[in-house]
Write a structure and sequence with these properties.
Elements lengths: L1 H5 L21 H21 L19 H23 L39 E4 L3 E4 L17 E4 L3 E4 L5 H9 L11 H10 L7 E3 L8 E4 L4 E3 L10 H15 L12 H7 L6 H6 L51 E7 L25 E4 L16 E3 L7 E2 L3 E2 L24 H4 L15 H11 L25 H11 L7 E5 L5 H6 L5 E6 L2 H11 L5 E7 L2 E6 L8 H4 L2 E5 L5 H7 L7 E7 L8 H6 L5 E11 L17 E2 L6 E2 L1 H11 L2 E16 L2 E14 L1
Parallel strand pairs: 8-11, 13-14, 13-18, 14-17, 18-19
Antiparallel strand pairs: 1-4, 2-3, 4-12, 5-6, 6-7, 8-9, 9-10, 15-16, 19-23, 20-21, 22-23
């Protein structure tokens, strides 16, 4: 239970998501004990794991090394150090206490200057001119052999041609943002996208979250909340705001001052950020010299020093004046550190992106068009987060140590957008396959099951008596003909019935194809729900159910085929077929269907997943959903040849068929399947080898031996 609640981060799905408030949280003492156990386990791995034995020379830990997971853990802890610091900053001041060895606030807090309640540009905060930038080509991506840890989204490549643009030399300060607040920017809906306005209304936001009112209502007198302190307002520090607030400010600023000569105001893009980063420490420099990625050689206390100093790697425990450190070669300040910068980019994969099998869902769930990239790092960013190669993201309503910089350009922003998300403000459009590869969205690929040839093949498989009227045998007559491989769908249905579920009321056929198994189940069960990913297959099953006489082509030789009529099995009549409800669906959504579809209410006494498991993008997710849909005493029949193909299932999601990177022993799918099913509360009650024959033409057949297993819910 601890692992299940602690593995979920702080990225709630929606700004009004209060689901975590319903969870049963353990006592603090229990958490401390759990932390001790985890700590001891990690220490033991470091001290005793054979892969770290350096008695024969230094050990190189790369992505293929089993102890890459250690560094993954270290860096994940760094991420949560930063996100936790934001949560502490949100917590009422009386509930937090500054740790003894915590870094000091930036010294500008203690400069003795009296803070005005009505800031003036040039006195309380610096003027923020737009600085023209010469465009250039930017190459994104971290080399695989770079000698530091990297998250999966950092690897890969993309080349972006960045046109000329203009960017404010500083991030927008609290002083500048004060004008937006005082002018009623939080009250005027026209500056906000629909979801941004809904978020603002839900939170009743009237000023940035970390501003603290210190005067009478309406006086616009504010202090500033640091992580553990409430301090006087620092007008020359960057404004900590969400993406929604950043975009609202851009519209307000454009209306008040008029749009710039080269297009409307917006925020930065990832590619533009890498243009204005200091040339001594940008991507090109780091690829040529590891030391150019400053976090590789620079401690937090030393980060502020020198001509490229920055507030990064916990040099301080707060932000700093936006003009405190020297600018980059393009004349822009704080291109790294101080505060993250929101961008116009959706979080996205680079070309040749691959997940790492140890943490296969670190990035991919957020390639959804609903997460905005942030760049540059903040004062709290350490380790990989402070690296030049870092690529991080949050939802647009999310509080982080993050600000923004104004940008304008003649053309469209050189930003990466995926499919539309649930909020406007980021111009969502489909990515060009030529530039970014089709791997970005599975939705762009065609359904391999929607072809006439495959329809004919499946009708022949599911209804093997078809062709008997036309004189076409399912298998050509010959010695030792594999007739035992026919009627595969019917044999699967009969196996479920033979395993004696506690009741024979309701059955579910997951991946029903054209309905042969479903109709056979309906001979024994009072009701059958059946769905398939292919709309063509479901349509064919419904047409048969309605009494329509379907025909299909049986291949004979070369271009020669024979049209035959579908013939049902004995006992499958209109009354039996009426017990089946067919619908188009996705086996990957079983857990969602259990909560949202009326067809799933009441659960099922029997469930079949036939030759489906190794065609799913996430087979384990389907298995884990089974306890929520199977009634007590119900039986699940899983039939699969374990034919794993990356065309259907990312290698990181295969149940088995791989070599364990630590033990070097083979991992077999049936063993993993048993482990998963037993963890879900099922007992294995049956196993057999189940052959099937699929006709390609008169003299060629596929002969497949699937493993059929039965599982009873305890």
């Amino acid at each position: 239970y601890f692992e299940s609640i602690f593995e979920v981060g702080v990225d709630e799905m929606l700004w009004d998501d209060m689901h975590k408030n319903d969870m049963l949280w353990p006592a603090v003492s229990e958490v401390f004990e759990y932390r001790k156990d985890v700590y001891n386990t990690v220490v033991d791995a470091i001290m005793n794991h054979p892969s770290l034995d350096d008695s024969n020379g230094p050990v190189t830990v790369n992505q293929d090394h089993p102890m890459w997971a250690l560094f993954m853990g270290f860096e994940h802890e760094r991420i949560h150090l930063e996100t936790s610091s934001v949560l502490f900053r949100e917590t009422p001041i009386e509930l937090v206490q500054r740790p003894k060895h915590w870094p000091s606030l930036h010294p500008s807090v203690y400069d003795g200057v009296s803070r005005s309640t009505n800031p003036v540009e040039g006195e309380d905060y610096p003027s923020n001119e737009m600085v023209d930038v010469q465009g250039r080509t930017v190459k994104l991506g971290k080399p695989l052999d770079f000698p530091s840890y990297g998250w999966d989204n950092e690897y890969g490549e993309r080349t972006v041609d960045v046109p000329n643009f203009s960017a404010s030399k500083h991030m927008i300060t609290n002083g500048e943002f004060f004008d937006f607040v005082k002018d009623g920017g939080y009250r005027r809906k026209e500056y906000w996208c629909d979801d941004g306005w809904a978020w603002r209304s839900h939170r009743n936001m009237k000023w940035p979250f970390f501003w603290t009112p210190v005067g009478p209502a309406g006086s616009h007198e504010y202090g500033l909340r640091a992580i553990y302190e409430e301090i006087p307002m620092q007008w020359d520090w960057p404004a900590d705001v969400t993406y929604y607030e950043s975009k609202a400010y851009c519209l307000w600023k454009s209306e008040r001052d008029g749009p710039p000569k080269n297009g409307p105001l917006r925020v930065l893009t990832e590619a533009e950020h890498n243009v204005i980063r200091h040339q001594d420490h940008n991507l090109d420099a780091a690829r040529s010299n590891v030391d150019a990625d400053k976090v590789m050689v620079t401690s937090g206390s030393n980060f502020p020093k020198g001509g490229t100093g920055a507030n990064l790697n916990m040099a301080y425990s707060s932000q700093n004046p936006v003009n405190f450190f020297p600018p980059s070669h393009t004349g822009h300040f704080d291109t790294v550190g101080n505060a993250w910068e929101w961008t116009e980019d959706h979080f996205n994969p680079l070309k040749n992106f691959e997940v790492h099998h140890v943490y296969d869902d670190f990035s991919t769930p957020c390639f959804d068009g609903k997460h905005s990239m942030i760049v540059g790092g903040s004062f709290m960013s350490t380790g990989d987060e402070a690296s030049v190669f870092a690529r991080f993201h949050f939802r647009p309503h999310f509080l982080q140590h993050s600000g923004f910089r104004l940008v304008s350009s003649d053309g469209e922003a050189p930003a990466m957008h995926l499919f539309p998300g649930s909020f406007s403000g980021q111009a969502a459009k489909a990515a060009s396959e030529a530039d970014y590869g089709a791997e970005i969205s599975e939705e762009t690929s065609s359904n391999v099951y929607e072809t006439d040839d495959l329809m004919s093949m499946y009708l022949g498989l599911h209804f093997p008596l078809s062709g008997s009227r036309e004189g076409v045998d399912a298998v050509i007559d010959h010695v030792a003909a594999p007739l035992h491989g026919l009627r595969f769908p019917q044999r699967v249905a009969n196996l479920l019935t033979a395993l004696a579920p506690e009741k024979l009321e309701r059955a579910l056929d997951v991946g029903c194809a054209v309905g042969g198994t479903s109709f056979e189940l309906a001979k024994s069960f009072n009701h059958v729900e059946a769905f398939d990913f292919s709309d063509n297959f479901v349509s064919a099953a419904k047409r048969l159910q309605s009494g329509e006489q379907l025909t299909f082509e049986v291949p004979i030789e070369g271009d020669i085929s024979k049209q035959v009529s579908v013939v049902q099995e004995d006992g499958v009549d209109m009354s039996v077929m009426s017990r089946v409800n067919f619908f188009q669906g996705d086996a990957s959504s079983l857990s969602t269907y259990a909560e949202t579809r009326n067809e799933f209410k009441g659960g099922f006494d029997g469930v079949i997943l036939s030759n489906l498991l190794c065609r799913l993008p996430d087979p384990e997710a389907a298995l884990v959903a089974l306890p929520g849909i199977v009634n007590k005493g119900g039986v699940v029949v899983i039939v699969t040849p374990f034919t794993w193909l990356e065309e259907f299932t990312n290698r990181a999601k295969w149940l088995g068929g791989v070599i364990d990177p630590v033990s070097k022993q083979p991992i077999h799918s049936k063993d993993v399947l048993r482990t998963i099913m037993e963890e879900q509360g099922f007992e294995k009650i049956h196993e057999e080898e189940m052959p099937l024959v699929i006709r390609e033409h008169r003299r060629k057949y596929q002969y497949i031996v699937s493993e059929a297993s039965g599982w009873r819910k305890k």
